[in-house]
Structures are given as C-alpha cells and as structure tokens.
Amino acid sequence: MTENRQIAATVSRRFLWLAMGLLAAPTMAFAQVAQAPASSSMPPMNATSHVESSMGGMQMDSMQDGSAAPDGNGSMAGMKMGSMQGGSAPPDARRADYSEGVSPSSEPGMDMDDAAPVGMLQFDQLEAFHNRDSNGLAWEMHGWYGNDSNKLWVRSEGERSGGHFGESDVEALWSHAVAAYWDTELGIRQDFGDGPPRHWAAFGVQGIVPYNFDLEATGYVDPSGRTAARVRAEYNMRFTQRLILQPDLEINAYGRSDPARRLGSGISDAQLGLRLRYEISRRVAPYIGAEWKRRFGGTANFARDDHQAVFDQQWVAGIRIWY
C-alpha cells in the first residue's frame, strides 16, 4: 500500500512539472524579446516570425489574396499551403460535366432535338388465327415519321383467309401534337377486301388517357356522304419486365347501310382481344391469345344471310416486332 502511494505521488509531481514548463515557455520567450537590445542584429520577434521560427520556415499563403510569407531557415523550408479561395484548378482536375473527355452518344433519336425527324415501323399483331369456319392470317401495324410536333402516320389492319382478303383497310394521316400525350389526325383511308373498295377522308385524335390506356378515335366521310367511326383502346399489364398481357378493344360504326360490303347502319361490330406476349427483346415479342368478335344490327343480319357466325371466337399466335 505504501509503495502505491509513493508511485502515485511521483507521477503527480512529474505531471505538475510538465504543466508548469509548458506555461512558462511562452512567458520566457516574450521576456527575452523585451530584454533584447535595440541594436541587436536579431530581427524583432512578432507573432508571425515566432510561428515561422517554430514551424521551421513553413510558408502560409494568404487566404484572401494568395501572397506568400517570406522563407524561413528551418528544416521544413519550402513547404507551402495553397490559397483556399480562387486560383486555377490543377491540370488533372475532374471535368465540370463529369464527362472525362468522353464525347456525347451518337445513337439516333437521343440528341434531344425536338425538330429532328425520326421514324418507326411496328407490327403490333402479325399472327395466324383459327376460328370455327376457317384459318388465316391477320395483321395490325402502324408506322410514323416526323418530329415531336408533326408526323406522317400509316396504319393498316385486316385479314386474309381462303386465298382472298377479308375486311381490310390502310390509312395515311398527318398527326399534329396539341397537348401533352395528345395528337390530332387528318388524312385518308382506303378499304379493300370484301366488296367494292371505299375511299374516306379521316380525322380524329389519339393519345394516352389516365392509367396509361392508349386511345384512338377516328371519324370518316366518303365522297357519297357515307360516314363511319372507329374507336380503339389497349392497355399493357406487366407481370414482369418481359411477360405482358395486352387487352384491346375495337368498335366500328357506320352512318348508313352498305349492302355491297355487308355492313349495316349503327354499331356494326365490336372486337375484344387478349394477347400474352414475352419480350425476347423490346423489338421482338412472340405471343398467344384469343379474340372475340360480335356483330350487331344490320351487320349481324347480313352475317346470318351469308351463313356466318354473329358471335365468333378465334385463337391466335403471332409475333410483335418493330424497327
């Protein structure tokens, strides 16, 4: 017990001597400066020179104007601390845009130029179908070329079965953007297939409604005064990033009966499709599905007279591609 107390007392005395030495050192330095004769060759000692002496000649640039302090004679002579404001960046500094010298991408359509023309051709449906009466091929496609404000659109849909075309048409439209996600359309439509060909002037709108439904609504007038209308809507339900279920609905209507093409007045038919596709890539996606078609009014009567089904269901398998 006595030895422990002696050790503690010794340690305490040493810490006390160290503290007194640290406190006395600045006082002795200033006392020496005050007692130095005026004719002495030693330069006056101020706070800056004292720091320079004790730091061995370290130079500190001004934090305001970048001017350097005079050199000292210590072992650390020549060390400089740069200005914290202003001045030029070192030659190996990172670029302000973080590009590191890499040029912008040259991929078409990615230059953010609203006036740059771009185009696309897409077959939403290119398929084989089987129904109660026949087998055949069907298509639905669209393509466009232009800029964000104005485009030339081409649309077509139809089917071929038994060596001849069924109800088919092709449209050429000028599309003009009028609001976010909405375009107006003006152009022409040509019907071919069953019955004599028909020519129509076309006008309408297309865009995206809330919840991301794609909608097209188009009206038609032919030179003889016939009128028609078509509404299409579709939606993409994503189960995964590649597996997508696409329901679509189309309704056609005519202002008056057209017996030569077996069409009645009013709503002539409605088609509901359901297709499940797998996107091997964004551009290539095989699919399978089903489609239901219901004829109404005079069109249904023409179908009965021709021994065709008023309500028809068909199975489809095809591919969705775009360029």
From TrEMBL:
- Give residue spans, biased composition: Polar residues: 38-52
One example GO MF annotation: copper ion binding
Instruction: Determine if Signal is one of this entry's keywords.
Output: yes
Bias type Low complexity, positions? 53-67
Q: Which residues form the signal peptide?
A: 1-31
Q: Please indicate which superkingdom the organism of origin belongs to.
A: Bacteria
Extract the ranges annotated as region (Disordered). 38-109
Q: Which GO terms describe its cellular component?
A: cell outer membrane
Alphabetical GO biological process terms = intracellular copper ion homeostasis
Is the keyword ATP-binding assigned to this protein? no
Q: Please state what the protein is called.
A: Copper resistance B
Originating species: Paraburkholderia ribeironis
